[in-house]
Structure formats: C-alpha cells, structure tokens
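User: As part of a screening pipeline, I want to sanity-check one entry by hand. Below is the sequence and the SMILES for zinc ion. Please return the complex as structure tokens so I can compare it with the automated output.
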Amino acid sequence: MIVETVDPGTEEVERVAEEYLLRYPDYSGAIALYGEVMKAQQEALEGLECQLSLDEEERQRSLLMGEPLVDPMDVPVERGAFLELFERLTGAVLEGRDSELTVESVLAWPGLGEERFEQTRRAVLEGAELSGDNEWSAEDRNVVSGIFWEALAPFYRKCGSILTFSMEQSMWQRGFCPFCGGAPLMGLFRRDDGLWLLECSLCHSWWNVPRASCPFCDESEGSLKFLYLEQDKGQRAYYCGSCGTYVKTVDLREEDRTTLLPMEDVVTAMLDRAAEEEGLERARGYTER
Ligand SMILES: [Zn+2]
Ligand SMILES: [Zn+2]
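Assistant: Here is the complex for your manual check:
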C-alpha cells in the first residue's frame, strides 16, 4: 500500500484556516499566525529543489533495517533561501508578541551566520537550548528555536516528498518518520478506511502505523489507550501504558472535514495539557539512523 502525502499549497491553507477560525474562535490569534507560517512554507517549497539522492537498494536496506532514510543533518539546507524564509517567519511571529525581541536583533544573531549555522541547526533539531551569546530570555530562545524549526521544514519536506515517493508502507510501521526519523506531529484516522496515519513534525511526510500496538516501544501489550476532552471527542491523545508516550490523533471516520494537522495541533493545546497532567509524554525529537 502506498500513502501519498499531499502538500496543501497556499490557497488551500488560506481556505482551511478560515474554517478553523470559525470552528475555534478561542484560538483565532494562533490560527491566524500558523496560517501565515504555513503559507510562507508552501511558497518557499515551490522554489526549492532537493540536492540529495539515494539509490533504490540503499533505500530498501534502510527501511528493512528499521532506519530512517537519512540523518536529518545530511539534508542540504541552502542558507540563503533558509534566511529569506526565516526572516519572513520572524516578522510574522514577533508582530503579535509583546517581547523585547525584535526582528533586527534576531537577524543579527551570530548563530545564523555561516560559521555557526550547522551548529544551530543541530541544537534546534535536538531540542537543545540555543547558545547564550545574546540578551534573550529562555522563553525568547525557545521562540527563535521554534521559528528556526519552521524555516527548516520546507527543505525537509522537499527531499522527503521525493525520497519517500511510492514507498511501500508495509515496510515501515514505526513511531518515527521513515524519511528523517522525526517524531510525529499528530495523526489522523483516515475517513474511508480508518487507516492510522502520522505526520512527521519535521518533514511533514505521512506514514501508516498499526492501531493495535504502541508505535514507540516494543513493550506494549494489547491496544493503546486514549483520552479526550468532553467537548471534542473526535480529537484524542493515544498513549501507551508501558512507555507513556502519546500522539494526538483526529478521527475523521465519523466527521467529514478538511484538516491541516499542524493547525489541528494548535487547536488541541488543551489535550496536550490533559495528557501531561496524566504524566504522559508527547513523542518528540528524532530517531537517529
Ligand atoms: Zn520526517
Ligand atoms: Zn509504548
């Protein structure tokens, strides 16, 4: 079976963001911002090319070994194109924020310079704190790290879409992305066949996992458990009793609507809080080759 990841494109992002705004007025600020982020990413994606290739034998070998196709640091990121998107995203994010952080101060940060760029990329991918050669608060550093992550995404998306094209899904049933090893951002149960699809938090590729056991550990027995909030029974946090890892999943079997999982992630922030209160941990980071 082949699972195709579809890039929404800017118009679809705009249209679906409108639907989310009507449905989740309490999250209007976050939806509008994330809509801008996604639109900028979709536009950037159109101008990118993937400078990475793998031969078919290597591809099959990795998947059979249960290793993602690439190490995320090996995905080429052209700094010029990156900085263009990064600047646009920084403007969008800082516009609505009450903070000391300015676009100028972020862009002047040496961590973006040629010498330190790869080091910064590694820190962002690993979720490590950015280096402290600035006056930023810990919260501001997290914001910059988040913007950096979002500006990386199209480069990963571009290569991921080419290198996982027509991948046989039965070869990969794990809790991390077959292309880059990234943790899932969220999942969905597909409308027609109930297939559980996860979307990578970094390259946004989709892949399929079985519903009967935990995709994150080998310890789980029986089916996964889930929790949900009374007002939104279609959005659930599926978790494993053994390892305590969860992934939010939206059930589209009963409900026909268009979803963008990055936006769905934004409007289900309360579900994360409920899961954390239960002592559960969200799937994060990436799994190395
Ligand atoms: Zn990925
Ligand atoms: Zn588990």
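Points to compare against the pipeline: The chain has two domains: 9-163, 169-282. The chain has nine helices and seven strands.
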